[in-house]
Design a protein that fits this description.
By secondary structure, the chain is mostly helical. The chain is built from six helices and no strands.
């Protein structure tokens, strides 16, 4: 897949693993709406177990696949790095997970914390990689090479326009920031749920003492 020069979030639909436009549009709607729907159902205590599992096993892998194909560009001989105007369009994907993130941090009762935690870690990692990760990649490369990434438009046998040492350092920094996210997000969610669990136990103990 050769990623177009004027790529936007709309082109994300073309990277999904199905040629059907209707299916791809339905998938995008599911990515953005299902987390909020799960939060609403969970607060109503009506969340079916199959819904978060469906998101985790069907929607999340398709999202991760599409973002991986966009960021890696395996069919491009040069494997060019995404430009700022390309990867910054994907920050909007974070919005889809904000209701679920707020629910995990603020709600006193969450029925499926492990499933929600997996949803907030695995697919969001790929969103983080293609946005914040690429910000770090560009910044570190510029600091190392003394200039920004050069997009020469060279033909296949003229692709070595990156400073090899600088790009390796930049990729290492990108992978480290991804690893930090992979550690910090589960720890943050576990800590938040632990606080609510201790608070619930304290309130229950206080109610029992008041009854006595």
């Amino acid at each position: 897949m050769a990623w177009p020069q004027d790529a936007t979030i709309v082109d994300f639909i073309q990277a999904l693993p199905t040629p059907s436009l209707a299916v791809n549009l339905a998938f995008v709607v599911a990515v953005f709406l299902l987390p909020a729907v799960m939060v609403w159902l969970d607060r109503q205590q009506r969340l079916p177990l199959g819904l978060p599992w469906a998101y985790l096993l069907v929607v999340a892998p398709a999202l991760m696949y599409a973002l991986l194909m966009i960021g890696f560009q395996p069919n491009n001989y040069c494997n060019n790095i995404l430009r700022h105007g390309q990867f910054r369009g994907f920050y909007v994907l974070f919005v889809a997970f904000l209701p679920l993130f707020a629910h995990m941090l603020a709600s006193s009762k969450v029925s499926r914390p492990w499933l929600f935690g997996a949803i907030l870690t695995l697919p969001v990692l790929f969103v983080f990689d293609i946005t914040v990760g690429h910000e770090v990649l560009h910044l570190v490369y510029q600091n190392q090479a003394g200039e920004g990434i050069v997009y020469s438009g060279a033909r296949a046998w003229e692709c070595n326009h990156f400073d090899s040492e600088s790009i390796l350092i930049a990729f290492n920094a990108k992978w480290r920031i991804d690893l930090m996210f992979l550690v910090v997000m589960p720890v943050l969610l576990l800590a938040a749920r632990g606080v609510h669990r201790r608070r619930s136990k304290a309130e229950l103990s206080q109610n029992e003492n008041n009854e006595v």
